[in-house]
Amino acid sequence: MKNILLFIAFVFLCNQMAAQKKLPVIRANSFKAVILEEDNGLKTDWNIDPSVKPDIYTVSKISKGSKTVKIKTDIDSIRIKIKQGDKKDFVILLKGKDSCLTRIESQVPKDFSTVQPAFHDSIRLGINGQNTMFVKAALNKTDSLVLNFDTGTSNLSLTAEALKDKIKQSLKAGVNVLSIGNKKYDGFKIYKVELSGHGTDGRFGWDLFDGMVVELNYDLGIMVVHSQLPEYVKKDKAYERLEVKYLDKLFFVETTINQGSSSYKDWFLFDTGYQRTAMLDGPLLREHHFPTTQMKEIKKVIMRGGQGNEIPVITANLESLSLGKYKLKNIPAQLLSESRLVINKRMNILGNEILKRFNVFLDFQNNAVYLKPNKLFNDSYIEKE
């Protein structure tokens, strides 16, 4: 019996070694590598670490189909195709001796559409004169907070002031619960920030609702979290459907801007936490021959980043901006003279001074945004008042 057990163990070990040998292998002489998501251009500096097995890189959410990821070391490279919920292992052979087991994985898609009973959780939605959208929430049942729903961020961020004056409990990683309306959310991280939307104690991101559908109805002043997209939205031709593309923890919609005879179409960050109209990356636009010099300067302002840093910005008149079939004209847009990197990438941003003009359904099941003009659509822009 002992010999039989030894033989079985030997066969198992051989099979494991054979499986290991089948893994793709690339070489490296340096601890530094780069991971590139080819569909969205996200570039991540990667540290090769032999002590972590497997060392896992999680790709941006895949909206449909698959994506290709390129891993490049100082002397070698590999391309890996990955689907939703999939994972692929390979080995980086460091300096010819250390085998670094590395994994590229995609998170399993969340989908609450089959939950019974279906839910439609309605929450009072406020918006102030600074375009900060906010709801009331409770952290761990005890601490009442006013929070900004910021689609340009993820997890939960609380201001230093709120952490000092409003949080009466000891926060422990991985066990915190945020109550919004009748639903409870967990699994998020908590970050400390210096600033949040005007009059709020912090902000929470779209990923809290991954696999759900979020309705922002400014006409009724409500935010509704749905287990699935209401059928009437699909039938109402006034709603314009825009595809969503993800970049790390951010999501984007296709947007077209026009100036004179020039047109530029790109993926813009959908950012309800940005209080102004649109932030345009001047150097990026000029590389695509968009005539930023033809945009009439309105004024100069100082914008503050999430950590309180100052960013000088020129406000200039943009002739038009289109989201699908809907066009907004003569927009006082913020034009950056220098590129501002977000997650190591240049980008243009849609802010809530534009987004508040639509009643919105954010479909995080089918990765789409539905927009319909509301009562604010034709209101004057704050910068021009």
Task: Please provide a written account of the structure.
By secondary structure, this protein is mainly β. It folds into three domains: 25-105, no CATH class; 120-226, Cathepsin D, subunit A, domain 1 (Beta Barrel); 231-384, Acid Proteases (Cathepsin D, subunit A, domain 1, Beta Barrel). 11% of the residues lie in helices and 46% in strands. The chain has five helices and 29 strands. Strands 10, 11, 12, 13, 14, 15, 16 and 17 form an eight-stranded mixed beta sheet that branches. A six-stranded mixed barrel has the order 21-22-27-23-26-25. The chain has a four-stranded mixed beta sheet with strand order 1-7-8-4, with no helix packed on it. The longest helix has 21 residues, at 2-22. The termini are far apart. The model has no long low-confidence stretch (mean pLDDT 92).
Q: Say what the CATH topology of the largest domain is.
A: Cathepsin D, subunit A, domain 1
According to DSSP, the number of beta strands is: 29
Choose one word for the global shape: globular
Tell me the CATH architecture of the largest domain.
Beta Barrel
- Given the helix and strand composition, which structural class is it? mainly beta
Largest sheet, described in full? 8 strands, mixed
Q: What is the fourth-level CATH superfamily of the largest domain?
A: Acid Proteases
Low-confidence stretches: none
Percentage of residues in helical conformation: 10-25%
How many structural domains can be distinguished in the coordinates?
Answer: 3
Q: Provide a count of the helices.
A: 5
- Please report the distance between the alpha carbons of the first and last residues: 88 Å
Instruction: Give the DSSP E fraction (strand runs of 2 or more residues).
Output: over 45%
